Fold this sequence. Notes:
Layout: H1 2-29, H2 32-66, H3 71-95, H4 97-103, H5 109-116, H6 119-135, H7 139-153, H8 156-161, H9 168-191, H10 195-199, H11 208-239, H12 244-256, H13 258-279, H14 283-300, H15 302-310, H16 312-319, H17 328-353, H18 358-409, H19 416-438, H20 444-464, H21 470-475
Amino acid sequence: MRRGLIYSLSSNVIFFISGYVLHFFLGNTMPAASYGVVGTIITVLDFEYMFLSNGARQSLAKEISMKRFSALSVIGKTIAFQLIVIAFFFCVNFFGAPAFGYVLNDASLDFYFKVAAFLIPANGFFVILLGINDGLQQFGISALLGVIYPLAKLSAIPLVLIPFKDNPVVGVELGFLFALLASIIIGLILLTASRNRLKQTDGPAIAFPTVAKNTLSFSLFFIVVSLVLSVDTLVVKSVVRPAQMSGYYTGAVNFGKISYYLLSAFVTVILPVISNLVGAGKKEQAIVKAREIIVISLSFILPIAVIVSSSSNLLLTAFYGSDYRASAGALTCLSLSNFFMGMTVLLNMILNSHNSSRFSDVLSIASLLTIIPLFIFTAKHGGITAIAATSMTCTALLMLVSFIRVRQIIASVMSPSAWKAIGGAVILGVITYGIDLIVPHMNLLLVGALYILLYAVYIGALSLAKVITPTLIKSLAQ
């Protein structure tokens, strides 16, 4: 498990670093309004990817790791169901492009969404490869593909600079398409080495309705994640004026998602690992692993969210420029919101690994009925800071309810060490906020050095408080 976490975290770190390289280029070479258009296209794609990716990937990972059915049967029928989902979203993007332009008050979006439609099939097949490797617990291969994809996305930079300098949005889209196709080809080559392992997996054929139910159950839950992480940007684009505000909000969203990207590495590993323990009848060990992963999340990921949240003004000014101070309040809320959302996903994956998915379904439906109206109302009356605060409030409630449900169904996953980590994060936030007030401007290198120092001091303090121990780290390898 430890190796899987290291692989997944390394992959996700490279993912968001390469993403920030791309956004640094776009944000500093394009007007804020144009950058907002790019952010809108990426946001819609992220929403669809979340639905398209996590349903198939998590379903494959769970079923292959539990070994209840023939692996080849699981893969074949998951691909068949994935084709249905791909066809649906392709039609939404291609034929519904004019509707996107109308709803988002920008007719230029019509063409861009038609081009974006061709990214859907490529992403759909890419995540199938990830799900197969996760199920086989070949986290190194999944991580490698997770490194190749974001690095290949940087091909958008030369495309924007040369052939598409007059139409940078298309350059970005084509760069993303190239990255997906390259990753699929490499993934298929690497998967050939595991074909014998897949053939050796005994068990009956899985029924297509079972595949559909599992995939839709995961997908329905990840709609909530997509709504919170993506729809707010679309609402800002649609109802908040002036147009530059969508660009400023895009900048805040990019940094707000750091903690979610990192926590998603934990999600990738925890579902197949705990599902394997539950499938083997080792439920007590599964609970221990869940508690350990909560402590690790609070110890290593929460401080990152807190540092970014507490120094939002300093970070945005150093990265984008002084104009982006307008979104400092939004970033303060979004950084915590994304951490809360990541923890919500983590907790629901623990529930799903114990074959308890009904709660996630109910949570998804309830959220669908409330989040979008709340986002629209707060954006109209309070702007980008208000909608970000709404996002933070919603995710905090989702996380709290999920914690309670895990305690009711499985066991409490909050240990004394977990509470100590939370207390330390609060102190870290106060110190960081004080620095942000006293020193309102630094260059990007100094900001990075400050963050490394604060993070190192925090980790050292948790080690002295015996929250982070050699026993904890070693246990993850078991």
